[in-house]
Structures are given as C-alpha cells and as structure tokens.
Amino acid sequence: MSALEIRDIRKSYGSVETLKGIDIALQSGEFLVLLGSSGCGKSTLLNIIAGLAEATSGDVLVGGRSILGVHPKNRDIAMVFQSYALYPNLTVHRNIGFGLEMRGVPADERDRAVHEAAKLLQIETLLDRKPSQLSGGQRQRVAIGRALVRKPQVFLFDEPLSNLDAKLRLEMRTELKRLHQMLQTTIVYVTHDQIEAMTLATRIAVMRDGRIEQLGTPEEIYDQPATLYVAGFVGAPSMNMLQAVFTDGKLAIADTDVRIPVPARYRNSARDGARVVVGIRPEALRVATGAATDLSLPVEIEVVELTGPELVTTARIGPQRLTACLPPRTRLAKSQTCSFAFDETALRLFDPATGKAFPDQSSRV
Ligand SMILES: Nc1ncnc2c1ncn2[C@@H]1O[C@H](COP(=O)(O)OP(=O)(O)OP(=O)(O)O)[C@@H](O)[C@H]1O
User: What keywords are annotated for this sequence in UniProt (predicted)?
Assistant: First the structure.
C-alpha cells in the first residue's frame, strides 16, 4: 500500500485549469520533490494534500484512506512553510510544542518530545528564546521541529530554504537530508531549485503547466530526460541542444558540413530528412587531442569562464552554440578553433515536433 497516493487531482480557478490530472503514488520513506518553474501548480498541489485548498476532482489517500473529507488538523500531515509561520510572542519551546499543547498532550510528555526534536535539530540551547532572537536558519529549524514533534505520516515542505542566504541554504539542505536518512519519513517537498531537487529527492516530479512532465529518480531525470523541457530545466549549465537533420544514417548538424553517426540505440527512429534535436550535457564534452573523429564537433571558442572547479567554455558550431564544462587548467583562448569530443552514449535525441525524447532502444537490445 502506498504511504501517499494522489489520484487524478484537478484544480480549476474559475475557467482556468491549474492542475490537469496529477497521479503519484509514494512508498513510505520516499522523498518526493515537486520541481517546476513559477506558476506550474506545485504549491496548489501541496496545499490540496495539506487541506489548505480544495481539489476540483480526484482523490488523495494517506495509508490507503481518502483524506479529502478530513479536517487539515486530523490528516496526520505536517507542513513547513517558506515563511516559517512561528508565533512571535512564544518561546522556541512553546512554538515547537504548540501543536501538542492544542491536542491536550500532558506537559511532561510534550517537554520530552520538544527536547528530542531540539536535540535532532541542534537547537537545544535556544529553547527559551523568542523567534525575533533567532537567525533565519534557526527559525527554519524551529519550524521543522514543530512538524517533527507531531510524528506525522507525511511531511510537506513548501520552498523551506528560499528565504535563506546561499551558505545557509546549503547547510540546511544537508541537514534535511541527514534528518530524512535518520527518520525515513515520507516527504513531499516543493522547490524551483533543481540542485535542491537533485540532491534531496528519492524521486522528482518535474511539473509544467499543471501536469507532470516526468516522474523519476534524480538519475533518470538527469540522464534520460523524457522531453526537451526536462532536459533544459535540470542541469546548469543546461544540456546543449543542437538542431540537426537525419541524413543518410547520420546526424547532419544544421547549417554546417558536420555529420556524426546516429547512435545505434536510436537507429529505428532515424527517418531520412526528419529534423532532430541532438542533446549533449556540457560535462560530456572534452577537448579532442588527436585528429578529428566522427565523434567530435569542430568548434570556435567564444567565451572562456573559470568558475574555480571548472572552465565553462562557450563555443560556436556554425550559427549554433555549445557549452562545455572542462577541467580548469584547459588552455583555450577566444577565437581558437578545436574539436570537442564525446562518447556516443552521451547523445540524447529529441523530436522537435513533439518535444519528446526518441525512444532509446538500448534497453531492448
Ligand atoms: N487563489 C487563486 N485564485 C486564482 N488563481 C490562483 C490561485 N492560487 C493560485 N492560482 C494560480 O494557479 C497557478 C499555480 O499556482 P501555484 O502557486 O500552485 O504555482 P507554483 O508552481 O507553486 O508557483 P511558485 O513557485 O511561484 O509558488 C498560477 O497561475 C496561479 O496564479
């Protein structure tokens, strides 16, 4: 039985359909990240699970039981908001224990639960302070503590790190991962930050315009993007996408004389004359040393940027651009010509007409 099941959830505001049929089933202990750009419906879906918004149709089940008719307080779900939503005039101790206090949990039991959560979150020394005497990261820990003490079946997080500065965000990300590994709770987490999604999730649902574009493990989403949208959204710098045409069993890169072989696993998709988008991740490119081969692309270097761990290099192939993430000591200068080599397995082919990845036949061979 799924810990959380979302069945064909739809939501309309007036005549506008914001969620267009969402289906997800989560096993206990999964960390699902809802990833997508602003306005795609992530928060709406989270709010429906929490009971803060009503679905137009569909169902949500926790532990096999429908919860849509259940009051938010009784759903056995705890939500952590971006804004923390702490009570300013209560101490950290009372903020964390507030939900238990409201449910009439005796003071000594409450106290034990609060200390246990505070210890996990390393905020035991802050229990007598008020929220105004805390940093952003500490406030976020209190908000998480308040959710933890309720020991819910499902945790919901709505962009919990977006108010923190970059360094703290990284720290809290690691902290959340540690907590999840330790407690093995079921989590649904909303973000538009793809690094957060890649590092935290056991599965990612990439959302677009009220639909799930792809649902998969971080590795699947990164290595086998189902659509051009997912390929472009996940990864920074994003996947290179070269316009090309299937020509005599080759990929003819548009507006150049360059032809590269169609990888064997895509041969069944190659219809002579059809347009194709060739996807290749920047880190899959390297500067070719010997003579050019049919697994390399002749380029002219345009911009070279040293980020520290890598040299991010933008180059031109005909009128199109390619980005390569190269080792930092690579010697390259503007206007230099060279070849970027790659392995055949690094190529991903997409149909520009549908935006979908061509089927990869390697698994059927
Ligand atoms: N109460 C409402 N009335 C009308 N439209 C709404 C309401 N709430 C949300 N919407 C619309 O529904 C769409 C999805 O909103 P939602 O907040 O779920 O997106 P999101 O993916 O969480 O975006 P963000 O990352 O900006 O929070 C948006 O177009 C939004 O304008």
Answer: ATP-binding, Nucleotide-binding, Sugar transport, Transport
